[in-house]
Amino acid sequence: MLVYTVRRVLSSIPILILASVLTFVLIDVSGDPLSDLRMQQPPPDPSVIQLAEERLYLDRSMPERYWLWMTGIGGHGDIGLLQGKFGPSTQSTTYDIGENLMMRLGTTLRLVGAAMVFAFGLAVIAGVVSAMRQYSKLDYSLTFIGFLALAMPVFWFAGIIQQAGVGFNELAGSMVFATIGDGQFQAQGLDFWGQIGNTFKYMTLPTIVLMLTSFASWSRYQRTSMLEVLNSDYVRLARAKGLPNRVVIRRHALRTALIPLTTVVAVGVAGVIDGAILTERVFQWRGLGEFFITAVEKNDSYALMAWLLLSGTMVIVANLIADLLYGVLDPRIRYE
Amino acid sequence: MSEMKVSAAPESTGAESVGGAERTQMQMILSRFLRHRAAMISLVVLVLIALTAFIGPLFWKWGHTIHLDIPPNQPPSADHPLGTTTAGHDVLGQLMRGAQQTLKVAFTVSIMGTVIGSLWGAAAGYYGGRVDAIMMRVVDVFMIVPLLVMVSAVAGNAQAGTTWYAVAFIIGFFSWAQIARVVRGVVLSLREQEFVEAARAAGASPGWIIVRHLLPNAAGPIIVAATLLIAVAILLEAGMSFLQFGIQPPDISLGQMINDARTAAATRPWLFYPPGVLLVVICLTINFIGDGLRDALDPRQTMVRR
């Protein structure tokens, strides 16, 4: 198991490097970090532009810059991924990309984590229920909700939920759900129960929004794999030897039916990150989504690179966890 | 695409003639699809939407741009069935133009992603070994970067996302990985079959075998994946436009309309709901059509019903 884990981690390094080359080249080719400065009216002094170019290492060739970004050898001491520095930003000379990224990571991870946990739990329940009552009214309604959710643009759904939250607050006469902000500032100086109340207030609506798409597709998968298992011989045997239905479902069927879902969930992380950006935008969170949007708007190529590398790492880690879970869930799989 | 499907029929039925009945595989597929009620209704709805989006603007008196004769901020009326915006757009005109751009982007992406993905996947599956390993690592790379993030980064960075084809090109470049995986899986099993061996014995080049023998036989899964890619592309384009990195004003897209109306959902609902509902309906119909195609082309494997 340990050997397998180490080998998996090592084999994902080339993929990350390849991904970083691809994104670096594409971001480099597609935009000019200094376009805002160059377009300024009246035109800035050529020496100003030259200084900015030097600060952002734009006076070097692209391969040189990639090497510099990776190792930091020959830079001004603010660049070099292997030294834990993400490079200079176009936003200001004092803007530290790494520090900002880490500050917002917690906010977004909270949302992504909550949405994934709830989506997974509800998807398993919904999938199992519709598999056990195949072709019932409940099954058909869950199928329809699934199709509808898969066709729903996240940001539009977010807008509707936000409106619903506002309406609910008006009805209740107090602010039950916060519809704007991430609540980090409000959480300061609260006691334990206050923290929980605050979290509930700010996180409920965005979590509902973000979990919808994943819930829809995962519950479909869960239904299919559960149906397959329920019709298999060993479940029939378990029933034949007189086990109560609850035990058959929980101990025999569900455990096997969960296996395919782990892969689907791991692959789905990338989609959840996409959704988190849109959700954060609608609910005006100061998370990774806002960081990303600002970075794109300001042509901040090093900040974008840091962002993409972080999200790529998150997806790879999720895939690794899924692979290891496979071994736990499926006793037939042994990692040597 | 349709040519592929037609040429697939003789090859896959050639080995064993189907039950003596005088129906080609094509006819069987068609009749299975026609019997799929949700898919047929969806197809009709989608065609109607597409016709309205492409032909409607020719007949409707208002375009998608600001017009001085349009009173600002009007709720729906006889003159403007879906109301007007603050700046003086006719929402119906915008909606038709937006749907048109969305459909153009989505179909371009689907064709582009399918061509790249199926060629890439087929080559990887056919050659196998080290070539396969390297090609699939590249696919992995495209799979680990969140799609919306990547396309927004490139389009927003380029500040050239003004035109629909630039947006389509960028999305298409990033969304072929899934199809490549599907096609590789199919080709891996196809390449061991006799007809491939026969073609190789007859001296066919690998390129010829891939294009003329392997891809036509993988047409079923490819068509299904291409259909579902349309829905993915629509949601991606809408997300991009919502973040303002997609199609830029004065041109319009549905995502951009939702973004403009983001704060107006309660006060001016006629701005917020129509583009969203239209997006949902388009994606819903495409998903149902994809479902129907899957049932028709590959009766063994169905997602929804067993």
UniProtKB/TrEMBL annotation, chain A:
| Entry keywords, A to Z | Cell membrane, Membrane, Transmembrane, Transmembrane helix, Transport
> Can you supply one Gene Ontology CC term for this chain's record?
plasma membrane
List all membrane-crossing ranges.
9-27, 111-130, 142-161, 200-218, 256-278, 304-329
| Presence of the UniProt keyword Chloroplast in the record | no
Cross-referenced InterPro entries: BPD_transp_1_N (IPR045621), MetI-like (IPR000515), MetI-like_sf (IPR035906)
Q: Which Pfam families match?
A: BPD_transp_1 (PF00528), BPD_transp_1_N (PF19300)
Location relative to the cell: Cell membrane
* Gene Ontology biological-process entries: transmembrane transport
According to the entry, every stretch annotated as the ABC transmembrane type-1 domain falls at 105-326
UniProt main location, coarse: membrane
Its placement in the membrane is given as:
Multi-pass membrane protein
Q: Report the family membership.
A: Belongs to the binding-protein-dependent transport system permease family.
Q: What is this protein called?
A: Peptide/nickel transport system permease protein
Automatic annotation (TrEMBL), chain B:
Membrane topology, from the record: Multi-pass membrane protein
According to its UniProt entry, the protein's GO biological process terms are: transmembrane transport
Q: SUPFAM superfamilies from the entry?
A: MetI-like
Name the UniProt key words of this record, in alphabetical order. Answer: Cell membrane, Membrane, Transmembrane, Transmembrane helix, Transport
Residues of the ABC transmembrane type-1 domain? 99-290
* Transport listed as a keyword: yes
Q: Where in the cell is it found?
A: Cell membrane
Q: Which GO terms describe its cellular component?
A: plasma membrane
Q: Cross-referenced CDD domains, in alphabetical order? A: TM_PBP2
Query: What would be one Pfam family of this protein?
Result: OppC_N
Chain residue ranges for the region called Disordered: 1-20
Q: What is its main location?
A: membrane
Q: Is the keyword Transferase assigned to this protein?
A: no
Q: Name the residues that span the membrane.
A: 38-60, 105-126, 138-158, 164-183, 222-247, 270-290
User: What family is this?
Assistant: Belongs to the binding-protein-dependent transport system permease family.
Q: What is this protein called?
A: Peptide/nickel transport system permease protein
Native organism: Nocardiopsis algeriensis
